[in-house]
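In response to reviewer comment 3 from the previous cycle, which asked for concrete evidence that the modeling workflow produces usable outputs, we include below a single protein chain processed end to end. The sequence was submitted unchanged, and the resulting structure tokens are shown without manual editing.
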Amino acid sequence: MTLFYCLLYAGAILFVAGSIVRAVRYARQPVHLRWEIYPVPQGKLAELRVMVPEILFLKGLWQFNRRMWAVSYPFHLGLYLITCAAAMGVVSPFAAVLHPVCRAAGIAGLVLVLLGATGLLVKRLANRELRIYTTAADLFNLLFFAATSVLLLAGYLLRPAGAPGPLGILRGALAFDTTVKPPALLTAGLVAAALLVAYIPMTHIAHFIAKYFTYHAVRWDERANVPGSSIERKMAEYLMYRPTWAARHVGATGARTWADIATTNPTQGGPK
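The workflow returned the following structure tokens.
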């Protein structure tokens, strides 16, 4: 049990640490292109009115790609339900009272994640346009989520009578109670879940971290680029970078600065 609990703690610690590293990297990225994207909400309340529907309901995907929303939203909703169930069941002082709600939310969340991951997998394999952009890592990620959901569902539903469920095991982990005896299948599911949680920040699945920066540092950044501003100083620094791009027509081989590349018309025989 000690090793099992250590694996659960390691998964949570790696998730938090990896998410922090990701956030710091995003925060240190160069200033984005000065896009003219409006309207820009004014004030925190207005920002919340935009972000809450986007986070909770994937409003943008609903507006522009409802077929993808139909499989992506169940996946995200399932993750939300699982997170809420774990938080309520483990942290809440009313855990005993809320146990039926946590159990229902957890089971529904796992089913939705399984359905969503399977639907996204089928979409990526069957849709020609999506297949072009699909990598082996994309398929692996979805299979990882689906397999973990199956293990957790099977481990919970098929556990022997009287055996602890996921919430009981997690509460035991918080207290480091080594007397808890989880069934083997459920143990395998929780180990898979810990590995998945630790893995998430290392992949593009961690786009939930980038979302804050996408809105606040890209879409809603209205700072004016005036003489002497921090933006002007940063831009001057960026123009001295020597980028390397795979697109040969750009001529970004690392030998020229970005200022040279940006002021050269590649159709007129610029350096390659």
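The domain at 2-219 is CATH 1.20.950.20 (Fumarate Reductase Cytochrome B subunit). We consider this sufficient to address the reviewer's concern, and the full set will be provided in the supplementary archive.
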